[in-house]
Specification:
Elements: H1 7-12, E1 30-31, H2 35-43, E2 48-55, E3 57-58, E4 70-71, H3 77-92, E5 100-108, H4 116-129, E6 132-142, H5 149-157, E7 162-168, H6 172-177, H7 184-197, E8 201-208, H8 215-228, E9 232-237, H9 259-275, E10 278-281, E11 285-288, H10 292-298, E12 303-305, E13 308-310, E14 316-320, E15 325-328, E16 331-335, H11 339-347, E17 353-358, H12 361-376, E18 378-380, H13 381-388, H14 393-396, H15 401-409, E19 413-415, E20 419-422, H16 430-435
Parallel strand pairs: 2-5, 2-14, 3-4, 5-6, 6-7, 7-8, 8-9
Antiparallel strand pairs: 1-17, 9-11, 10-11, 12-13, 14-15, 15-16, 16-17, 18-20, 19-20
Helix pairs in contact: 3-4, 3-11, 5-7, 8-9
The structure holds S-adenosylmethionine and iron/sulfur cluster.
S-adenosylmethionine binds near residues 64, 66, 108 and 239.
């Protein structure tokens, strides 16, 4: 997947916008969402589903972090949390009795905050309540500082085959400023051991735009990462939203790279990963061409869900745990975001729903279009019209045309009667092309989103 670089255009279009891990985005979810809607969605859903499970705890606060997390050193808090998860699983069990689970992803916060015993108990609960496919894919996010080699071996024994390690940057000054000091040796030892243990896929998370990151030194981090030979790399743009995440105020503003420097970091990463033979997946992922994400993209089967790019079905994800989001059969729902509310609702025997949304037929059409563009950068208009019984495509999407016009003039996208094609120049800005088809965007406050690049 070729990506062409134009600093001028990227700066021109440097605005805030959704990442389209769903359409409509989570901002459109409505309160007082009835559990009957969840039951109905599951009754008619596909027979194979994916599970996401959120473990919110972290031992230490990283100042840049924008995730839903609770910082604590008390590992017994996780015992209470496991009890709530067991209650939630019991509520879903009768709704999922005729379904099988094809993928499980543990995310956070920090899933490896759990002790080995707690991890065993969690897997026991999951297998007790749900039917896993024999070849189900189990993956987990790992903070290297909270995972001994022994815990890694334990995860392998529990059936996990895919791991993702949070690296962010190896530079010492960057690490000190973001309050996340972890040595290169620590990550290297874990990666080597993961490979020895037979984990089939190793992902490393990096962030560009962090304090004191500058191209010369970031190049060293990139080279160290390449030496570790990961199967995938996630390269996130640092979302600096200090009004929303108080800890980000601890990062001195003058230490952050200016817009131009931040872009240079991204450009450098794209160059290094491409030259090393990695395929650019969408906007923020790189994968070896033999990796399942890259293969899915080559075969036109790549999807996007709340975890980002995925090989799993987009409309068949159950999220368990505080703040998790589910999407099944055209219905999206989110769990309570505060731990206390989540636990209270479960103690009262209710699904811990906070908000939700049932997609209309128009939402489903736009969701399919946005997903296609963000994963594959082109849309075959006649095939799309046939799939959704649309007579005249550009008449149906007349509202998108004025928003597409400047993007067409700047050669970021080419539109005809038969094809929409995001050009190599437009690929890093694909979120803007998608936003042209978003019926809800004008209602939302753009400051709720991070910068598109
Ligand atoms: C839940 S964490 C991964 C697991 C574990 N907690 C860790 O940090 O190693 C998810 C990832 O989100 C990314 N991330 C967190 N805050 C971010 C922010 N403000 N902007 C961009 N990426 C961010 C980091 O790359 C982080 O590794
Ligand atoms: S980046 Fe990971 S470890 Fe750090 S605070 Fe966020 S979720 Fe926790």
């Amino acid at each position: 997947m070729q990506v062409l670089w134009s600093a001028e255009l990227i700066q021109k279009y440097s605005v805030n916008g959704p990442r389209y891990t769903s359409y409509p985005t989570a901002l459109s979810l409505q309160p007082d969402f009835p559990s009957s809607a969840v039951q109905a969605a599951l009754a008619n859903s596909a027979s194979e589903l994916c599970l996401y499970l959120h473990i919110p705890f972290c031992q230490q606060l990283c100042y840049y972090c924008g995730c839903n997390k609770i910082v604590t050193r008390h590992s017994e808090k996780a015992d209470v949390y496991l009890q709530s998860l067991a209650r939630e699983m019991a509520l879903y069990q009768p709704l999922l009795s005729d379904k099988t689970i094809s993928q499980l992803h543990l995310g956070g916060g920090t899933p490896t905050f759990l002790t080995q015993d707690q991890l065993s108990r969690l897997m026991q609960l999951l297998r007790q309540h749900f039917v896993f496919k024999a070849d189900a894919e189990l993956s987990i996010e790992i903070d290297p500082r909270s995972c001994s080699l022994e815990k890694l071996a334990h995860l392998r024994q529990l059936g996990f085959s895919r791991v993702s390690f949070g690296v962010q940057d190896f530079d010492e000054q960057v690490q000190i400023t973001i309050n996340r000091v972890q040595s290169e040796e620590l990550v290297q030892a874990l990666v080597l051991e993961a490979r020895r243990l037979g984990f089939s896929s190793i992902n490393l998370d990096l962030v560009y735009g962090l304090p004191y990151q500058r191209p010369e030194r970031f190049l060293q981090t990139l080279q160290s990462v390449l030496q570790l030979d990961p199967d995938r790399v996630s390269l996130f743009s640092y979302a600096h939203m200090p009004t929303r995440f108080a800890a980000q105020r601890k990062i001195p503003t003058q230490s952050l790279p200016q817009a131009e420097d931040k872009l240079a970091l991204l450009q450098l990463a794209i160059k290094e990963f491409s030259e090393a033979g990695y395929q650019c997946i969408g906007m923020d992922h790189f994968a070896k061409t033999t990796d399942s994400l890259a293969i899915a993209q080559q075969q036109g089967k790549l999807q996007r869900n709340f975890q980002g790019y995925t090989t799993a079905g987009q409309d068949a994800l159950i999220g368990l745990g505080v703040s998790s989001i589910s999407q099944v059969n055209g219905v999206i729902w989110q769990n309570q975001k505060e731990l206390q509310d989540y636990q209270q609702q479960l103690s009262a025997g209710q699904l811990p729903l906070e908000r939700g949304f049932s997609l209309s037929q128009d939402d489903k059409i736009r969701a399919a279009l946005i997903s296609q563009l963000i994963c594959h950068f082109e849309l075959d208009i006649p095939a799309f019209c046939q799939r959704f019984a649309i007579q005249d495509f550009w008449r149906y999407f007349a509202d998108a045309l004025p928003k597409l016009d400047p993007l067409i003039s700047d050669s970021l996208v080419v539109c005809s009667d038969t094809l929409i094609q995001v050009t190599p120049l437009g690929r890093l800005l694909v979120r803007l092309v998608c936003a042209s088809f978003d019926r809800y965007l004008h209602q939302a406050n753009s400051l709720s989103y991070s910068k598109v690049v």
